[in-house]
Amino acid sequence: MNIGGTRKTDGTYIVKASGADATFVQIYNAATGETILWNNTLSDGDWLRLKSDGQTAEVSDDSGSTWTPSNGGMSGLVPQLQGGIDNAITVTGVTGTCAVNYYAMG
Predict the structure, then answer these.
(1) Would you state the pLDDT for residue 89?
(2) Residue 9 in contact with residue 21, Cβ under 8 Å?
């Protein structure tokens, strides 16, 4: 992932489990050295939303129509992205197929 500018940018990660589940989700950004560990269960069809601007976690079981706070079992920092370079993002803990989307916040 590469965003413009040179500063770190807050954003939101959405992890979508499709034919997948997890007993934890960990996201690491090698460019910033920031790691978040969300130590909870994510079931097939669930979405996990992690926001770096408020360091919050929420889960949806209806494709993002409603969200439930899920900060318990969370440690570390939801990674920001470093502007102007490629950010190597690593997601671990999910078995099966998942999609990860990142939305930068100006």
Answers:
(1) 93
(2) no
- CA dihedral sign, ordered 33, 18, 40, 64: positive
Which amino acid is located at 30 in the chain?
Answer: A
Task: Specify the pairing of strand 47-51 against strand 11-29.
Answer: antiparallel
48's tokens: 């996990």
Is the separation of the CB atoms in 90 and 40 below 8 Å? Answer: no
Q: Look at residue 104 in the predicted model and tell me its pLDDT.
A: 83
Q: From the centroid of its chain, how far is CA 85?
A: 19
pTM listed for this prediction? 0.90
**Mean pLDDT per 10-residue section of the chain, whose length is 106 residues:** 79 90 93 96 94 96 96 95 91 88 82
**Residue written as token pair 């954003």:** 11
**Rounded-to-integer distance, Cα 16 and Cα 56, Å:** 17
Angstrom distance (rounded) from CA 82 to CA 104: 11
